[in-house]
Design brief:
CATH class of the largest domain: Alpha Beta
Number of strands: 18
Oligomer: single chain
Order of helices and strands: HEEEEHEHEEEEHHEEHEEEEEEHHEH
CATH topology of the largest domain: Phosphoenolpyruvate Carboxykinase, domain 3
Largest sheet: 9 strands, mixed
Radius of gyration: 19 Å
Number of helices: 9
Shape: globular
Number of domains: 2
Strand content: 25-35%
Structural class: alpha+beta
Distance between the termini: 30 Å
């Protein structure tokens, strides 16, 4: 979780304390069952850094309290005493691989392995249990695309009235600030999962980063806005082609993924752009656009 202008003092203090002491003390943490964008992950019990009250609250919307089915994936987690090695001349995505017989995904704090014929995921990570959950971000995004059921966007989202408003843009564009001023329910402010199900398209919160605590609700009937900071509020519609290009730039994917993954991604984004408004939101300071344009 990040520190932002809306972070309460006690939460800020807990985050700063965790940043100063990220690796201790270690303890046996019991098995966790999490549901992320409709997929269930069972993270096995292992020795790691127990979550503090901020991390527990951040992950609370994703806990499965009374499992009604077997998990989709069993995560065999092991905490590393130091970060996994990455060659100095490489980025993690450059050494990651998606093959027909095995996936091998790297980040600066984790290494994840999965065989497509299995439900077992092997995860080695450095840091806290929240870092282990964060290490599932790319894996979840790729699973949704692989199944053709959804994708993950760099986006914030909020429910207001009967609609869900999804705000996209590069870091600093104003996504977190936009949802912070919502008169409705803040879903998430860093990454949102877009999933097609029996009810249509659903906007799911995720526990992957952010300055605000996510909410457990699923948003429906979404509108997508690319946020631009301006002195006056305005809405500008995008053509489907421009919308698709801009949405693709904010989609979580692996550059080295097989072509079928990219084909599925473009098809899903095309369905999104054809069926739901995608616009530019010129947003004045203070979140006044909620009252002027969205009420």
């Amino acid at each position: 979780m990040k520190i932002g202008p809306f972070t309460p003092p006690d939460v800020r203090d807990a985050i700063l304390e965790r940043q100063k002491n990220p690796g201790f003390p270690l303890a046996l943490v019991p098995e966790w069952r999490l549901e992320l964008a409709g997929l269930q992950f069972c993270i096995e019990a292992h020795e790691t850094v127990p979550p503090n009250f901020v991390e527990e609250r951040f992950l609370a919307p994703f806990f499965v309290q009374a499992p009604a089915r077997d998990p989709d994936f069993f995560v065999h987690a092991r905490r590393l005493p130091s970060r996994p090695p990455i060659p100095l001349d490489k980025r993690p995505e450059e050494i990651s691989r998606i093959g027909e017989d095995a996936w091998d995904l790297h980040s600066y704090v984790a290494h994840l392995r999965w065989a497509p014929a299995s439900s077992d995921v092997f995860l080695e990570y450095h840091g806290t249990l929240l870092d282990a959950v964060e290490a599932l971000r790319l894996f979840l995004a790729l699973q949704l695309v692989r199944r053709g059921t959804g994708l993950i966007l760099h986006a914030a989202a909020a429910i207001h009235g009967d609609r869900t408003y999804v705000f996209l843009g590069e870091s600093g564009a104003g996504k977190s600030t936009s949802v912070a001023y919502t008169p409705g329910t803040l879903l998430c402010d860093e990454m949102a999962a877009i999933v097609w199900d029996a009810q249509g398209i659903g906007v799911h919160p995720t526990p992957f980063g952010g300055e605000h605590f996510p909410h457990a609700r699923t948003g429906r009937d979404p509108v997508f806005f690319f946020v631009e900071k301006k002195p006056e509020n305005a809405r500008i519609a995008l053509s489907p082609r421009n919308a698709l290009t801009r949405l693709l730039s904010q989609t979580v994917m692996l550059r080295q993924a097989p072509m079928v993954f990219w084909q599925n991604t473009v098809e899903l984004l095309g369905r999104l752009a054809d069926g739901h408004p995608v616009e530019i939101l010129e947003a004045a300071p203070g979140g006044t656009f909620w009252k002027e344009l969205l009420t």
